[in-house]
Amino acid sequence: MNKKLQVEAIGTGTVIDHIPAGHGVKVLDRLQVLNSDARITVGFNLPSDELGAKDIIKVEGRQFTEQEANELMLFASSATINVIEDYKVVGKFKMSMPETMTGVLACPNSNCISHNEPVRSQFSLKQGKKDVMMKCHYCEKSFSKNIVTELH
Ligand SMILES: [Zn+2]
Description:
With 152 residues, this protein is of the alpha+beta class. It has helices spanning 2-7, 24-34, 66-73, 145-150; strands spanning 13-20, 39-48, 52-60, 80-85, 88-93, 100-102, 122-127, 132-136, 142-144. The structure holds zinc ion.
């Protein structure tokens, strides 16, 4: 069963592979925000040589932009994104950190003005010593990306 899910091909779309097991749900949440009507196939806890276990998500009929791929990086930094056309991989995104992120994640600071105003959240991102740091545009506080993504 697992093996079948892994090799099942899609004609056109995007395959997000090598998601650390358990993180697929977060990526899935994010994807459903991106496009609610896409056909999505998921496999959780599939065997992986590199990770031990991995999650994999296939989105049919939709090819991601590089910015969208980079936003997913926050939820699954080891993931690779394969763009599929006519059953072949025509593009592979190397995950890289976006410089800014808008409207994806809420500010962890409960006193932040972004919670009370009709504005989209906005962060600038910077690689810190241990983790990616996200600085809120509105309250100017910085948070580790784990704190920001854990809220979702
Ligand atoms: Zn804030």
